[in-house]
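Field reference: sequence -> structure
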Amino acid sequence: MSEMSWTLIKFGLVLVGLLQVVPIMLWVERRGSALMQNRLGPNRIGPLGLFHAICDTVKFIFKEDPIPSHVDRFYYLLAPIVCVIPAFMTFAVIPFASSITIDGQVINFQVADLNVGILYIFAIASLGVYGIMMAGWASNNKYALLGSVRSSAQMISYEISMALSIVGILMIYSSVKLGDIARLQGETLVQLGSVAIPKWGIFVQPLGLIIFTTAAFAETNRLPFDLPEGESEIVAGYHLEYGSMKFALFMMAEYLNMTVASAVISTLFFGGWQLLPGMQFALDALAFDGMNREWARIAFEVMSFTIKVAFFMWVFVWVRWTLPRFRYDQLMSLGWKGMLPLSLLNIVITAGLIALGVI
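Structure field:
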């Protein structure tokens, strides 16, 4: 097949996978919160309430969708689209498996193998806040406007620390291509007897991981950083005037951004598609050879990547139902007085360790 055909296949697989995220995470969110609060959660429709999300989808599609008379109609309708499109686009450069060679053609398992990699993600992901600002302003509602202003201030405060937190990763692996970063994490960092510690980002950049993960919570507007939606303060924030499918698009954008954040954390700090412990043994036990083994390897890599992403998606839910919301002054103080100096310190420490030949 041609390169274009393979690109379309990968695009279709990624798109279908991302569209499944919202209904699955809605169920996980509800059952997870119920588990933490000693409740049952949804349990009426389907086994363990699995089909509850289908009812939500039907409700959103058929629910009345009025447009308030006081809004700026064009920007009001445009805002949800501006939020959701960058959320889909950012996943394009994330590798979910290594490459395979078919009839002399090398196939990389990422939709677009761009040479700017992680820079593309930061560039596109930052566009989502324009949709939030547009929604708050076009709604012509003081609470919605306050929510959108909060979101823009929050993004500026934490995106700087987030960008600086990965500088150490780029220094160590000498590449901005996510495929190269994931591949280089397969090298051995330390050999402890028969156990090899891989050169995963968590082992060479633990401080960078903490900063990046914290900033990811702030960038996705999840608790304890959900000030733009603070129900107890500004009713519902920037999407106060939205309902039906327009509100569903905002919700979809949030869960897609969580997926991208989880995928980036997995790729930069947990080896990406590198196999989890025990998977190599299971792959060898299958005793495949030739192309069968290659496809089995790709399947195991996709499985490993999916498990890592699913774990961090659960962490988002776990933290939401564990920590209370910050006050706004606490949020700003943490971003500027805490995380920004730490991210700069991390760069200095990493440079020193590289100069000493430790990493």
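Note: The first strand starts at residue 97 and ends at 102.
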